[in-house]
Amino acid sequence: MLKLIIIFSFLLSITFPMKSQTNLQHDTSINKSSKVTIKKDYRIDKIVDTHKKSFKEEGFRIQIFSENKKQPARDAKAKYISLKHSPKAHEVYQQPYFKIRVGDFRTKLEALKFQKEISPHFPNCFIVKDEIDIEELLEN
Fold first, then answer.
1. How far apart are CA 50 and CA 38, in angstroms?
2. For 37-86, how does the pLDDT look when each residue is reduced to its tens digit (9 = 90+)?
3. Predicted confidence band of residue 12 (pLDDT cuts 50, 70, 90)
4. d(Cα 58, Cα 105) in Å, to the nearest integer?
5. What phi, psi does 12 have (nearest 5°)?
6. Structural domains of the chain in order of their starting residue, each with its CATH number
7. DSSP-based three-state secondary structure for 119
8. 0.85 exceeded by the pTM?
């Protein structure tokens, strides 16, 4: 008999919350016509913009030059800029080498396509994994 009372009270406790939830759902359907206004502080947008500028992601670049002297590296960068390619040139110094890397590519396939485009001017260029600027990609 005690088991029967326990089972009955258990079933009653389960069905009672279900009934109250259906009533709650019914009540919220009445308020669908109400509007919600979200007010946001302008400083949030500034923080998000600052974060976007500093955000870096792993991607690919094309290394067009590497040597242990600074001036030849700058000459290679000037040659690249004179060709007026859209991707930006990046100077990287990894002791003892000065390296010039160009482009910001998310996939290796994009980098390979651009490498074929510039290889007549820089025959020893190759694809490297590097941190890329996401903001530049989002703007294009």
1. 22
2. 888 888 888 887 777 666 668 899 999 999 999 999 999 999 999 887 66
3. low
4. 9
5. -65, -40
6. 57-139 (3.30.70.1070)
7. coil
8. no
pLDDT of 22 higher than 70: no
CA dist 15 to 5, 18, 28, Å? 16, 5, 21
The answer to whether 63 and 101 are in contact (CB under 8 A) is yes
Give the integer Cα–Cα distance in Å for 62 and 115.
7
| Two tokens, residue 77 | 């960068």
CB-CB contact of 99 with 69 (8 Å): no
The three-class DSSP label of residue 85 is: coil
For β-strands 97-105 and 89-94, DSSP reports them as antiparallel
**Residue for token digits 């979200």?**
38
| Per-residue confidence band for 20, with pLDDT thresholds at 50, 70 and 90 | very low
Nearest CA to 102 among 127, 137, 67?
A: 127
> What burial class does residue 74 get, using C-beta atoms within 10 Å of its C-beta: 0-12 exposed, 13-18 middle, 19+ buried?
middle
Residue 132 to residue 57: CA distance in whole angstroms: 5
